[in-house]
Amino acid sequence: MKQTTIKTQKQIMTVFLLIYILNCTDLLFTYTYLKTGIFFEFNPIMSRLLVSPYLTILVKIILPAIFIIYFFFRLKEHSTSSLILCKIGGMLLILAYTFINSLHLYYLIHFLSLSL
């Protein structure tokens, strides 16, 4: 296996772990905000899932963790070009989740400033 492929595989796993962390923080922010009664879930799919905490944890935490573990063991079977495409897609997801988490932080700061 080429050195670039190993490097790309490590980068992809780092990207996936970062996506997972951002996904979990998104859930934490969302759940906390919904408990205040002031905010609502903008995503129509998630708004249906948030009815059940068990379903939410399954979809947002357990299934992605299983996917990452599965993908980790299958990573060596992919070509370098497909790994690069996967890395690009992962980086786009990181951008999206960073934007979403930034919005959450903005609302947190705004909400806290109103309550002072």
TrEMBL record:
Residues 17-109 form the DUF5658 domain. InterPro entries: DUF5658. Pfam families: DUF5658. Keywords: Membrane, Transmembrane, Transmembrane helix. The chain crosses the membrane at residues 12-34, 54-73, 85-109. This is DUF5658 domain-containing protein. It comes from Candidatus Cellulosilyticum pullistercoris.
